Amino acid sequence: MNRLLPLAFAALSGVIAASSTAQTPVPAKDPKSPAAVRAAAASTDEAEVKRLMQEKFPGVEVISATKSPYFGLYEVFTGEQMVYTDAKVSYILVGTVIDAATRTNLTEERIQALKAINVSDLPLDQAIKVVRGKGERKVIVFSDADCPFCKRLENTLQEMDNVTAYVLLYPIDQLHPDAARKSKMIWCSADRPKAWLDYMLKGNLPTNDGGCDTPLPQLQQLAQKYRVVATPTMVFMDGRVVPGALPKDRLEKEFARADTAVKTALKN
What we know:
single chain, alpha+beta, Glutaredoxin, 2 domains, 6-stranded mixed β-sheet, 5-stranded mixed β-sheet, 11 strands, globular
């Protein structure tokens, strides 16, 4: 399920080891306070870095440019990739920032944070709800009916208990030209969860003609909005986006991590 993202510039790859991280100070309420002035200046600098990136690399979509705590560099997020640059965009560094003390991949953490989705914004009424056991652990899945990795994920979920999967039908026509037709037939079934599992696990399609109204057009737009480019792509309850057909042990860890993250957020 690997996907190559063309980068519109050549850059030096490298690894930066960092032993500490810093948090951006919260601006004071007084707009004339030193903290507020510094925050305004930083925002202006970040806007200029974004403008320069777009000017020098017109083929690259720049989502954000933010001052990082590393050596005065700015992190530039392109939607899928993070690169680093100086204030004048004279140099580009492609690589991974590692916290030397904890061995944490700080670059990956930032990408995950920037790609996170507010799950309350997702239309679960347009999903096929598949409940296994009590269904207390929840995950939202963008899935293609003819995607072999999606079928692998469904087989893995079938081995797990206490899971609810909200399946958002996302046929990728370029890869699976017949998936949209099959998705419509599954959606138009009287028992959608059963129809979905019958096809994904057994290859058995329902007998209807798929002629009912379906949410496929809206879900296509939703996937594009959140830059979902491959299936399966999972969204856990803390908003973390995880692509791929993860093995059972990885799924268990993701559910546990998401549960801890949600409980921590509620306490705060």
